[in-house]
Request: fold
Amino acid sequence: DQQVKQNSPSLSVQEGRISILNCDYTNSMFDYFLWYKKYPAEGPTFLISISSIKDKNEDGRFTVFLNKSAKHLSLHIVPSQPGDSAVYFCAAIPFNNAGNMLTFGGGTRLMVKP
Amino acid sequence: GAGVSQSPRYKVAKRGQDVALRCDPISGHVSLFWYQQALGQGPEFLTYFQNEAQLDKSGLPSDRFFAERPEGSVSTLKIQRTQQEDSAVYLCASSLAGGTYEQYFGPGTRLTVT
Reply:
């Protein structure tokens, strides 16, 4: 029973174009969402997050959108750069979870072609 | 500054052997998490410490898995009588406190059980 799903295992984008990575969740108790980026042989690194009280959060080239009614979030990268090539994980934390343990999706491998 | 470190980075164990995986969190980080990442999947929560107290171990897959953090700093994840299905990357993460959502991950230990 996967509570966080990333339905696209891979995505290929041309350098300079927009990358859109999608994530769906089923647990309505999730109220904080994060995106992590992972290079091979390294641990995930935090990229950007969004609280359920917002529908958009922006940080430089990265923007996360949240649609609570659809239980859907997306990460937009504009413009995409070859260094963005990595596996991207979305993760969620439920409301009032004292430990804040993360529930991850399966990841999407992004390849940005020069 | 030093990030989260884990050792060993790679471990090969024969089925039935016991293994111990070490995590050194970022200094001063109160919360420590262990995750298991199977090939091609997202990380899955195993257990959570706040200082030396293990507050949640609901993700540990069996009683062969045991984690400790006796002095509230370094943590060890021990797996007894390893099985092939234990083969995975074991990730450790730390964060400042339970109310802080961002977790900092180590590079992981890749365990292969033959």
Q: What stands out?
A: The interface with chain B takes residues 4, 6, 32, 34, 36, 41-46, 49, 89, 91, 93, 98-107 of chain A (CB under 8 Å).
